[in-house]
Amino acid sequence: MAHTDHQTMRRVLRREIAGTIGLLTDEHDFRAMRRYRTFTFDDHKIYLEQVEALLRTRASQGGHTTIALFDPQDYAEFCADAGLDPDAPSSRTRFTAELATTGPTIPYDGRPLSDVVPALVDEAVRQATWEYASILLARLGTCATCGEDIGRAAFARASDLVVRILDTAPPGSRHLVCSVTGTPETLLSVLHADEDDEGATHLDEAEALEFTTVLALGLATHSPGGLVMRTSAPGTTDRIYGWRLRGDRLEPLTAGEVFDAYCTDVESGDLISPESGVDYCVPPDLGGGSDQTPPGHHH
User: Fold this and answer.
1) Residue 87 DSSP class
2) Residue 292 has what pLDDT?
3) pLDDT value of residue 23
4) DSSP-assigned beta bridge partners for residue 177
5) Is the pLDDT of residue 198 over 80?
6) Strands (E), 28-97
7) Comparison of pLDDT for 280 and 292, the residue scoring more
């Protein structure tokens, strides 16, 4: 009887354990791991099918699983730094545990793995973009005139601008895209903001952090770039408007400039038919001197 009770308690406790699996999302990374003798899979398609079956089984038993992006190069470096044998399952387990706290991850929510993989890759790109922009901001140092941290000041200004942009937007779903070029790489960040029935705006915090950091980098470095907003709500036409980055401020685009940007093929320069039910328009006034140079000197 006691033995049965212990087994029951262990089964209950097993449901309390959260798990993480490191996923090899593409064929190239999968082939890189095949050089290890203890990695026994030899077909990427079958590997993904087995991972999905495992995830579904854990979910059916009430288990929570986080999926992490497993990068073979990062794994090899991790093993070298930690003095671990890379051809050991325990080493892969330790690396995966590290990914659970530091790497790009998403929770498994029952979707097919074919839908999960693009979401995981997007999360990895988002995290890499944020880390890269943050490093560049930190390298700007302090202002030689006033001693203010340039990156921190730019982030505060970018945060204020994002709040004003969302506060002045029409009700509904908002989709923002910010691009910054010449940093030296072009950075692109997307922010989704949905408004509930009570008028409250809901954001993904990690997404908002990345978006604000990229905008801050553009403002701090006076890099070319822009910010475009698309709003959607039931029973109304979509509205598209935006701003260009001009120095350390946002300059409103005219309706014609927004139309040209959306209705011109980037590669060929040919005209593209405009979408039906879309209004290309001038952005609302953000107030607070957002389209003016901030008072004082330039960093």
Assistant:
1) T
2) 47
3) 95
4) 190, 228
5) no
6) 65-69
7) 280
User: Which residue's entry shows tokens 């593409």?
Assistant: 26
Whether residue 172 contacts residue 232, with contact meaning beta carbons closer than 8 Å, is answered with yes
Higher-scoring residue by pLDDT: 156, 296: 156
Rounded to an integer, the average pLDDT of 252-271 is 79
Mean pLDDT of 178-189: 85
User: Which pLDDT belongs to residue 4?
Assistant: 56
By the 8 A CB rule, do 230 and 216 touch? Answer: no
Phi/psi at 225 (nearest 5 deg)? 170, -170
**CA angle, 31 then 110 then 118, to 5°:** 45
Bridge partner list, 142: 149
CA of residue 23 relative to chain centroid, distance: 18
Amino acid at 218: G
Extract the tokens encoding 18.
Answer: 């959260």
* Structural tokens at position 208: 């908002």
Count Cα atoms within 13 angstroms, Cβ side, for 25: 19
The DSSP 8-state label assigned to residue 172 in this structure reads S
Residue 198, both tokens: 């009570």
Mean pLDDT over residues 128-132, rounded? 91
Residues ≥6 apart with Cβ < 8 Å to 210: 126, 127, 129, 130, 133, 189
3-state secondary structure (DSSP) of residue 238: strand
Give just the sign of the alpha carbon dihedral 160, 162, 166, 169: positive
Q: Rounded to an integer, what distance in angstroms lies between the CA atom of residue 34 and that of residue 245?
A: 47
Q: Does the bond joining 184 to the residue before it have cis omega, within 30 degrees of 0?
A: yes
Helix (H, G, I), strand (E, B) or coil at 296: coil
- pLDDT, residue 182, reads 77
Please give the backbone phi and psi of residue 8, each rounded to the nearest 5 degrees, phi first.
-65, -45
pLDDT per position as a tens digit, 153-162: 999 999 999 9
